[in-house]
Amino acid sequence: MYKEISKSLSQLTGEIMEKPSEKSSYLIKRMYELYSKKICEFDIEDLRLMINQQEGLEYLVPFAITKLEDDFFAEGDYYPGDLLKSTLMINNNYWLKYPDQKKVLGELFLKNKLKLDEIDLDEDIKLKIFNAFDKFYYEK
User: Fold this and answer.
1) Closest by alpha carbon to 54, among 87, 98, 78, 83?
2) Whole-angstrom Cα distance, residue 136 to residue 140?
3) How buried is residue 137: exposed, middle or buried, by Cβ count under 10 Å (0-12/13-18/19+)?
4) Exposure string (b/e) for 22-46, b if CB count within 10 Å is 16 or more?
5) In angstroms, rounded to a whole number, what is the distance separating the alpha carbons of residues 34 and 125?
């Protein structure tokens, strides 16, 4: 396992988020909390949220991939597979920098894609996951 998961994003990046005001959105307040939380204590929703915001990717994506290897349809607050979809939606610049991680995620998807048809999930969400994979996999 990665040694980085025993540290927080603040420790790893050296960045300290400014404390949000009371008027700040829930998202900003939650991100502030997560920046000081040890990565190993992140639940699926924490990972999904921060990956959606493109925050701390170099530390969070390897951890997210291990979660997806354990449970391909790992679910945050929305639906089975929401962590997968968020990870597939990461900006291509990240994958260009970390092609080995892209390869692992791509192989994991291809190995499990038939299970998408078997899972009880809205057809629109399934389509969004497949579209996210196509963009992820074929974008150079």
Assistant:
1) 87
2) 9
3) middle
4) eeeeeeeebbbebbeeebeebebbb
5) 27
Largest CA distance in the chain: 46
**Token pair 């396992």: residue:** 1
Residues 6+ apart with CB under 8 A from 8: 35, 36, 37, 38, 39
The whole-angstrom separation of Cα 130 and Cα 116 is: 9
At residue 8, the pLDDT reads: 92
Closest CA to 127 of 91, 85, 92, 95: 85
pLDDT per position as a tens digit, 6-63: 999 999 988 888 888 999 999 999 999 999 999 999 999 999 999 999 999 999 999 9
Report the predicted TM-score, pTM, of the whole model to 2 decimal places: 0.91
